Amino acid sequence: MEENTDSYVIDSSFILAHLFPDEKSQKVQKLFNRLKQESITLFAPYILPFEVFNGIQTAIIRKRVTPQLAKKLQEQFIRVVIRFKEVDLIEASSIAQKYLLTIYDSSYVYLAENLKIPLLTLDEKLIKLALRKN
Amino acid sequence: MCMLVYMYMLNKHAHILFNNQLWATLKSLAEAKKTSVANLIREAVEKTYMRTAELETRRKAIEEIERIRPHFKGKLDYKEMINYGRKY
């Protein structure tokens, strides 16, 4: 993660790690501490909220969180001001084929490449891909 | 699902007074940017005040999440959680 950048593409794994932190979420917390103090712009494809809500849905099904608490987390997540951007699906598809990714994942990679900014993700494959790009 | 939706319909009118120097600066900037003084002012207000409001909303949301969220021991597979949730 580049420490002094003021714009990032953020993915759903990163958001979920903030909503449901585990023992390895220090990197995520560090970024959210910056978000509370600095003027940082977050970008994401339009699929991000659907993925985040899917993750929350799983947490409810597995009784990791009550529906009431999940609703509160959903309401606050919506207020974490993220700028949603259109993705060129043909380009995203090319990236998916080239690096054997799903279209969902390649849409984040597409956006990071297109905006020329770092991608915040916990997905090992995407981290390696981002490192190779840099 | 968008966080903040701005309505760009311009239906409020403001009468603003400027001193000569500020007016001349705005006029020459507007000419250089091939836009209107009104548009320059709207952009400046949006950048200065709307951004501040957005960041304040975000800060409060993050603080509230951190106050109420559950914590888990071990390691969660967030990707798997996303994919599992797609089935329901």
Could you explain the architecture of this structure?
The complex is a heterodimer of chains A (about 130) and B (about 90). With about 130 residues, chain A is of the alpha/beta class. Chain A is about 60% helix and about 10% strand. Chain A has a 4-stranded parallel sheet with strand order 3-2-1-4. In chain A, helix 1 packs across helix 3. Chain B has about 90 residues and is mainly alpha-helical. Chain B has a domain at about 35-85. Chain B has helices at about 20-30, 35-70, 80-85. Chain B is elongated, with a radius of gyration of 23 Å. The interface of A and B includes residues 39, 52, 57, 77 and 82 of A.
Question: Characteristics of this structure?
Answer:
heterodimer; A: 134 residues; alpha/beta; four-stranded parallel beta sheet; 7 helices; 4 strands; B: 88 residues; mainly alpha; 60% helix; 0% strand; elongated
Oligomer: heterodimer
Q: Tell the overall outline of chain A.
A: globular
Tally of strands of chain B: 0
**What is the makeup of the main sheet of chain A?**
4 strands, parallel
Question: What is the chain-wise order of helices and strands of chain A?
Answer: EHHEHHEHHEH
The N- and C-terminal alpha carbons of chain B lie at a distance of: 20 Å
As a percent range, the share of strand residues of chain B is under 5%
Radius of gyration of chain A: 15 Å
Integer-rounded radius of gyration of chain B: 23 Å
SS-based class of chain A: alpha/beta
Shape type of chain B: elongated
Estimated helix fraction of chain B: 55-70%
Number of helices of chain B: 3
Largest interface, C-beta within 8 A: A-B, 43 and 35 residues
Major sheet characteristics of chain B: none
Sheet with the most strands: spatial strand order of chain A: 3-2-1-4
| Average pLDDT number of chain A | 91
Helix content of chain A: 55-70%
Give the helix/strand class of chain B: mainly alpha
